[in-house]
Specification:
The complex is a heterodimer of chains A (about 170) and B (about 550).
Chain A (H helix, E strand, L loop, with lengths): L13 H14 L34 E8 L2 E8 L4 E2 L4 E3 L3 E8 L2 E6 L7 E9 L2 E12 L21 E8 L1
Antiparallel strand pairs in A: 1-2, 2-6, 3-7, 4-7, 5-6, 7-8, 8-9
Chain B lengths: L4 E6 L6 H12 L3 E6 L6 H9 L7 E5 L6 H13 L5 E5 L1 H5 L1 H7 L5 E3 L4 H13 L9 E5 L2 E4 L21 E3 L2 E6 L2 E3 L9 H8 L5 E3 L2 H15 L1 E6 L9 H17 L6 E6 L6 H10 L2 E6 L6 H6 L8 H12 L2 E9 L5 H13 L5 E5 L7 H8 L4 E3 L2 E3 L5 H13 L1 H5 L4 H18 L6 H31 L5 H34 L4 H6 L14
Parallel strand pairs in B: 1-2, 1-3, 3-4, 4-5, 9-12, 12-13, 13-14, 14-15, 15-16
Antiparallel strand pairs in B: 5-6, 6-7, 8-9, 10-11, 17-18
Helix pairs in contact in B: 1-6, 2-3, 8-9, 9-10, 13-18, 15-18, 15-19, 17-18, 17-19, 18-19
The chains are: A mainly beta (about 170), B alpha/beta (about 550).
Chain lengths: ~170, ~550
C-alpha cells in the first residue's frame, strides 16, 4: 500500500538538506536548538518530538495580517506549531523599510511599494531540523470603483493598488 | 610515528558516557583525546575553528551519532570541517551511524569511516593505525568506502565489560541543588524487544544470543566509590539501556550485592536514579532500591496502555501491568515520570481514548506524550517500509497513521500541543523539574522538607495532565463531528485553553520552586530552566 495522503516528503536529498542546515547555522545561527546545559538531567527523559513538519505543508503553520498606513504596508507573519524563523525576510517587488522579530513566533515586516505590482516575501524557516522557505505573495488588487474618475476605476491612486490579497505557500 | 590527538565530538548536556568511555580506552592505549561539546548548531562555527585553526589539529575526529535527530548538525559539521581544510580522518559512531552506515558513507564523502556497534576497541585500533601510518580499512567493526562502494569489515564482538576502563570524568561535573551528579552504566543491552527501539538489534548484531551484559558488581561499586569519595558525587544516574533483568529473584540478588558492596565502601549520603520497564517494578525490588540503594527517582517506560498499542510496540506486557507498576511506585512514594507513545501506526480513536484514560488516572505524576517515531535499525521501521508506509529517506522517516480520523487528530495535536510538550521551554518538563526539586529536598534535606510541597506538586501535575486529556478529547470530538473542519480551526478551538492552563501551571510551579529556593537556599531546577532564555531564542534579527 502506498500512502498518498498529503505530507511533506523531503523534495531534496539528505545531503542537500544537511547543506541547507549547515548554511543556515553558519549564517545567522539556528535558533531551533539551544544549549540548555543539564538543568533537569535527573528528572527529564526527553520524549523525541515528531520527526518532521509532517502533517501538511509548512505554509499551513503560517498566518499573516496586513495593515496599510500611508504608502507603507506592514505584514505580520505569525508562526505556529513547530516552525521557527532562521533568517530575515527578503522581498521582491518593493523594498523592505522595517523588519522586527517581535517574538519567536511573530515577525513584523514593513515594505514601501512604489507600483501596483505584486510583492513577494520569502522567509527561511526551520521545522524539526529541516530548513525550508515560506513564500508570502501580496497580490495587488485594483477595485473597479464607480467614483474613480476618468479612468473608470481601473487604475489606482498614486499608482498603488487599492488592496492586497495574501497567498502563503511553500517555496 | 606522529603524536597528535583525537577529537571526540558530541552532545554533552550531561557527561556523554559514550565519548567518555572511548576517551578512557584511548587513554589506556596512550592516545590523547579531548571531548568537544556540541549541543546545538549555534556552536558549529566555533567547533570548526577550534579543530582547524590550530597549530596541532587532531589526526582523528570522531562524531557521536547516537541520536538521529542530531544527525543534521553532526553531518553538517563533517562538511564544514572538510571545507575548512581539515585533513583529519573523520569517523562517526553510535546507534544511528551504525544502522545508517552505508547510506551515510554514500551520501557524505567527507566521512572516511563509520565505527559500528560498540567502538571501545575499534576506535583504539583505528587511532593506532592512523598514528603509525598503517592500513586501517580492514580493521574489524568498521564501515569503509572502497572502489566507490561501501563495505563492512568483519563484525567485532561486543567487549567484555569487566575489561573496560571507567569513563573519563569532567572535573567540574554537573550539579543539581549544589550536589554533583554522575551518569554511569552497570550494563549494556536489554532483554526486551520493543518494535520502536534499536537496542535489541544493536546487541544481537554484535553478539548473537547475548542481548545484555553486566559489569561485575564490585567494578560498579568501585567506580561509584571513586566518584563519591574523590569527586564528591552524590547522585548516580544509571543510564543502562535497561537496569533490570526479567526475573525478580535475579534483580534482588544483584541489587542486594550492589548495596552490600557500597556499604562496604562506606559511601555516605547518596541517591540513585534508574530506568525500568513496568514488569521490573515489584514491591520487593523497588523496596530494596528505595531502602538500600536510596532511589530518588524512577523513569518507568509506560509508552502505551492499550492492547492494540502493546501489540504494535511489542512491549511484551499485558494490559494491567502498567497500572500495577504505577501503584507499587505510588505506595513507595517514589518520584516517577513516564512518557506515552499515544500515537502509533495502528492507533484508533478507541485505543487513543484508552491511553488518555491512563494519563488521567496517573496525572498526579509528570508525564509527556507524543507519537512513536521510525528510527534506523528498529523493527517498526522495517515493518513500515515493508508495508510501503514509511515516507522520506534514511535521514528522517515519516508516516501517517492507518486510521484516517486518528491521523487527523494527530495533526491537530502536533500543532496545538507542540509548545507544551516539545517547545523551547516545555511546561511538561517544568512539572518534571518541580517534582525533581521536591524529591531532592525530601531526600537530601529531610529536616527542611515540607509534605505540602509534594501535595502542591501533584496538584500542579494534575492541572496540566488533566487539561491535556480534556483538550485531546475535545480534538477527538471535533474530528468525529466533522470531516471537513480545517486543522487550523480545530487547533484554534483548543489553543486558548492550552496556553491558559500552561500559564497557570508555570505560575504555580514557579511559586513553589521559589518557596523551595528560599527554604533550602539552592537554585532549583525549575528556576534554572526559566533563566535559560538566550538572545537566540528571543529573535536575533532586528530592524532592517
Amino acid at each position: 500500500m502506498t500512502d498518498e495522503r498529503a505530507s511533506v516528503i523531503p523534495s531534496r536529498g539528505p545531503r542537500d538538506r544537511v547543506v541547507d542546515h549547515l548554511r543556515a547555522a553558519l549564517s545567522v545561527g539556528v535558533a531551533s536548538v539551544m544549549v540548555t546545559g543539564c538543568t533537569s538531567c535527573i528528572v527529564s527523559d526527553p520524549l523525541p518530538q515528531p520527526s518532521a513538519c509532517s502533517v501538511g505543508p509548512v505554509s499551513s503553520s503560517v498566518a499573516t495580517t496586513l495593515k496599510r498606513v500611508g504608502t507603507e504596508v506592514t505584514i505580520e507573519i505569525i508562526l505556529s506549531g513547530r516552525l521557527q524563523a532562521v533568517g530575515p525576510v527578503t522581498a521582491v517587488g518593493a523594498p523592505i523599510t522595517g523588519q522586527v522579530q517581535v517574538s519567536p513566533d511573530l515577525i513584523r515586516v514593513t515594505v514601501q511599494p512604489a507600483s501596483a505590482n505584486n510583492i513577494e516575501l520569502t522567509l527561511p524557516v526551520v521545522c524539526a531540523g529541516s530548513t525550508s522557505k515560506v513564500g508570502i505573495r501580496l497580490r495587488a488588487v485594483t477595485l473597479n470603483r464607480p467614483d474613480a474618475g476618468a479612468d473608470g476605476g481601473t487604475s489606482t491612486d498614486g499608482g498603488l493598488p487599492d488592496d492586497y490579497v495574501i497567498d502563503v505557500f511553500d517555496k | 610515528m606522529r603524536q597528535g590527538w583525537v577529537a571526540l565530538v558530541g552532545p554533552e548536556l550531561e557527561e556523554n558516557l559514550s565519548l567518555r568511555s572511548l576517551a578512557a580506552t584511548l587513554a589506556r592505549a596512550g592516545i590523547a583525546s579531548r571531548i568537544i561539546r556540541f549541543d546545538g548548531p549555534q556552536q558549529l562555527a566555533g567547533i570548526v575553528s577550534q579543530l582547524t585553526n590550530t597549530d596541532e589539529p587532531p589526526f582523528l575526529i570522531g562524531l557521536s551519532l547516537a541520536f538521529q535527530w542530531r544527525a543534521m548538525d553532526l553531518l553538517g559539521l563533517a562538511i564544514a570541517l572538510k571545507e575548512a581544510g581539515s585533513r583529519a580522518h573523520l569517523t562517526a559512531g553510535g546507534h544511528f551511524a551504525t544502522f545508517a552506515s552505508v547510506e551515510m558513507l554514500t551520501d557524505f564523502p567527507e566521512l572516511d569511516s563509520i565505527c559500528r556497534q560498540e567502538a571501545d576497541e575499534t576506535i583504539v585500533e583505528l587511532a593506532t593505525a592512523l598514528k603509525e601510518g598503517r592500513e586501517w580499512s580492514t580493521i574489524p567493526g568498521l564501515a569503509v568506502r572502497s572502489n566507490g562502494a561501501v563495505s563492512l569489515t568483519a563484525t567485532r564482538a561486543s567487549p567484555d565489560l569487566s575489561t573496560l576502563p571507567w569513563p573519563v570524568r569532567d572535573p567540574d561535573g554537573m550539579r543539581v541543588h549544589g550536589r554533583r551528579l554522575a551518569p554511569l552504566v552497570s550494563s549494556r543491552g536489554c532483554y526486551a524487544n520493543c518494535s520502536f527501539c534499536c537496542i535489541a538489534a544493536w546487541h544481537e548484531a554484535a553478539s548473537p544470543g547475548k542481548r545484555y551484559r553486566f559489569r561485575p558488581v564490585d567494578d560498579v561499586a568501585d567506580e561509584m566509590a571513586h566518584l563519591h569519595h574523590d569527586l564528591g558525587v552524590e547522585i548516580f544516574v544509571f543510564h543502562d539501556d535497561n537496569f533490570f533483568v526479567p526475573r525478580e529473584r535475579d534483580n534482588l540478588t544483584r541489587l542486594a550485592a550492589l548495596a552490600d558492596a557500597l556499604e562496604a565502601r562506606k559511601l555516605g549520603r547518596y541517591a540513585t536514579v534508574i530506568k525500568a520497564r513496568p514488569m521490573d517494578v515489584t514491591p520487593k525490588v523497588f523496596g530494596l532500591l528505595v531502602e538500600r540503594l536510596h532511589a530518588l527517582r524512577a523513569y518507568v517506560g509506560i509508552e502505551t496502555d492499550t492492547d492494540q498499542g502493546l501489540k504494535t510496540l511489542r512491549r511484551g506486557l499485558k494490559k494491567g501491568e502498567n497500572e500495577r507498576a504505577m501503584k507499587v511506585i505510588d505506595e513507595l512514594g517514589l518520584f516517577v515520570s513516564f512518557n506515552m507513545l499515544a500515537f502509533d501506526p495502528d492507533t484508533t480513536l478507541e485505543s487513543l481514548d484508552e491511553n488518555l484514560e491512563f494519563m488521567r488516572q496517573f496525572a498526579h505524576h509528570p508525564f509527556n506524550f507524543g507519537r512513536v517515531e521510525l528510527y534506523a535499525g528498529t523493527p517498526l521501521l522495517a515493518r513500515m517500509q515493508r508495508e510501503g508506509r514509511a515516507r522520506g529517506d534514511w535521514l528522517m522517516w515519516d508516516y501517517s497513521l492507518g486510521d484516517e480520523q486518528t491521523q487527523r487528530v494527530f495533526e491537530v495535536v502536533n500543532d496545538a500541543f507542540f509548545e507544551r510538550n516539545f517547545g523551547e521551554d516545555p511546561v511538561a518538563h517544568l512539572t518534571m523539574a518541580l517534582r525533581g526539586d521536591v524529591a531532592m529536598a525530601k531526600h537530601f534535606r529531610p529536616e527542611l522538607y515540607r509534605p505540602e510541597w509534594l501535595t502542591e506538586t501533584q496538584r500542579v501535575c494534575r492541572m496540566l495532565g488533566e487539561n491535556s486529556v480534556i483538550q485531546l478529547r475535545k480534538i477527538m470530538a471535533g474530528v468525529r463531528e466533522s470531516s471537513t473542519r480545517s486543522r487550523a480551526r480545530l487547533v484554534a478551538e483548543v489553543v486558548p485553553a492550552l496556553r491558559q492552563a500552561e500559564a497557570e501551571v508555570r505560575e504555580a510551579g514557579r511559586a513553589l520552586a521559589q518557596t523551595i529556593h528560599e527554604t533550602l537556599k539552592v537554585e532549583t531546577m525549575v528556576s534554572l530552566k526559566a533563566e535559560l532564555a538566550t538572545p537566540l531564542q528571543q529573535g536575533v534579527f532586528r530592524d532592517g
